């Protein structure tokens, strides 16, 4: 399950497989499922990743 991260009062979701961060839980979950299955990331999914630092 995508890990919930709180930063500056906002919630983000991290893919536990590749550590990319997403604003949307559904996308984080999708990324995780994909990463687990294919042992690689999908560019279509990781393009939605954001940086929180
Ligand atoms: Zn991932």
Please give a structural write-up.
The chain is globular. It has 53 residues and is α+β, with helices and mostly antiparallel strands. The chain has one domain (3-46). A hairpin with a 2-residue loop joins strand 1 and strand 2 (10-14). The mean pLDDT is 95. The chain has helices at residues 25-38, 43-46; strands at 3-7, 10-14, 21-22. Bound molecules: zinc ion. Residues 15, 17-18, 20, 31-32, 35, 41 line the site of zinc ion (ZN).
Overall pLDDT = 95
Gross morphology: globular
- Which structural category fits the helices and strands? alpha+beta
Share of helical residues:
25-40%
Could you say which small molecules are bound to this protein? zinc ion
Q: Major sheet, described briefly?
A: 3 strands, antiparallel
- Uncertain stretches of 5 or more adjacent residues: none
Beta-strand segment tally: 3
Radius of gyration: 10 Å
The helix/strand series, from N terminus to C terminus, equals: EEEHH
Strand order of the largest sheet: 1-2-3
Distance between the termini: 22 Å
Helical stretch count? 2
Total separate domains: 1
**Strand residue content:** 15-25%
Give me some keywords for this one.
53 residues; alpha+beta; 3-stranded antiparallel beta sheet; 34% helix; binds zinc ion
Topology:
Elements: E1 3-7, E2 10-14, E3 21-22, H1 25-38, H2 43-46
Bound molecules: zinc ion (ZN).
Write a concise synopsis of the structure shown.
The chain has two helices and three strands, in the order βββαα. The protein is α+β, with helices and mostly antiparallel strands and 53 residues long.
């Amino acid at each position: 399950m995508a890990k919930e991260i709180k930063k500056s009062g906002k919630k983000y979701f991290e893919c536990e497989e590749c550590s990319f961060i997403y604003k949307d839980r559904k996308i984080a979950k999708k990324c995780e499922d994909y990463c687990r299955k294919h042992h690689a990331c999908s560019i279509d999914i990781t393009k939605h990743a954001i940086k929180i630092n």
